[in-house]
């Protein structure tokens, strides 16, 4: 009897051990037998969240100096791997691109993006591919961009006229306001066949504030996303703000949708992007992927917010850097005056003949990327990178800002020096996602859908502003180059400048 009890006990232990190792073994061994990338230890419950501070891109860049190009952080109950060098970014965004093709579900996607029904946060799949294909075909792709060249030209003309009138009155120009006004109207004409803002006023100011608030709140590290058990408390008030902002945008988007549907018959010969989306929604063919009203509103939100904020921010940073370095302005003017002259506006067809302007834009994308940390991705399955184990569900963040300021990648990285992109060895580097030293829009399947449009807008609008005016600060005003963290990297203090026309008055009027 004693022997039988002993055998029974041992068999019980063996069964329990077998159960643990075979049923739970993978998750246990992934953290103990398999080697995670190095990273900070963190605190109980909150993990490394306190280390991120108010400028996570800066904090993560500093941590990478200690822990290496791919580091692992425990943020609450979630794991996050951070790629901080071109090689590590390539491993995740190219070699393992498909495995990291989805976005994590967090408060921004839930409360701002209609529960991930948009193009930015949606899972990689048929609906996302459809939204992307329609957007490329009618707005963001190469052929579509050519088709609305005149829209850009006319809106830039309205902007120049307003700036010229301000200069005649001796009034300073708030750069971001001018840019958002022009870009929102460009996008409005492509999507809705009309200018969204006819005049600058309260409506435009509210829209700009809403866009900035969205891009700021969507980039914050919300504690509730990492410690789900306390998400209901909304300790930082982020979710409360998102819900309020979402309601404002929803009212605006519903109004756009309703007004547009009532005039669809007027555009049968020349449908705009929203008409195409509505046609897809109404398509009843069995077995075909269809877009819902919610998808349409979510996509419009993507296009209007990201399309105005990221590009305008890049242009504002470029002008600020040039005002800080007047020799760059002088050299840009010499190049433009030689190619364009002083009797007409810059045309988009001039840009290939302006290598210094293109170098200024690349240098801006390097030092002031529109998104300092790429939009997060998530591991669909566990995988291995450089000998390190990455568990399923791990968030991926690529520190684009950190790579742009890494002395191991760039010589004198804190210096704003467009000449670095005119050298033989770096001249062919471009920001379209193929050269991992410079990926301001990300790379791979989830590269920013509007990257082509952003490059066109930044080169054309920045070039036009530089060619058309001399730029100076008002007396007694100092140039502030501080950053404000968010989904997009804003200037903490908006650029306000005194502009002086360089061309004949007739050039500034539409």
UniProtKB/TrEMBL annotation:
InterPro entries associated with the record: Cyt_P450, Cyt_P450_CS, Cyt_P450_E_grp-I, Cyt_P450_sf
Keyword list, A-Z: Heme, Iron, Membrane, Metal-binding, Monooxygenase, NADP, Oxidoreductase, Transmembrane, Transmembrane helix
Gene Ontology biological-process entries: secondary metabolite biosynthetic process
Membrane spanning stretches: 12-29
One Gene Ontology cellular component annotation held by this UniProt entry: membrane
Molecular function (Gene Ontology), one example: flavonoid 3',5'-hydroxylase activity
Lipid bilayer topology: Single-pass membrane protein
Main location: membrane
EC numbers: 1.14.14.81
Cofactor(s) it depends on: heme
Annotated Pfam families: p450
UniProt pathway: Pigment biosynthesis; anthocyanin biosynthesis
Subcellular localization(s) per the UniProt record: Membrane
SUPFAM superfamilies per record: Cytochrome P450
Residues bound to heme: 448
Catalytic activity: a 3',5'-unsubstituted flavanone + 2 reduced [NADPH--hemoprotein reductase] + 2 O2 = a 3',5'-dihydroxyflavanone + 2 oxidized [NADPH--hemoprotein reductase] + 2 H2O + 2 H(+)
Record's function text: Catalyzes the 3'5'-hydroxylation of naringenin and eriodictyol to form 5,7,3,'4',5'-pentahydroxyflavanone and 3',5'-hydroxylation of dihydrokaempferol and dihydroquercetin to form dihydromyricetin.
Family (UniProt): Belongs to the cytochrome P450 family.
Protein name: flavonoid 3',5'-hydroxylase
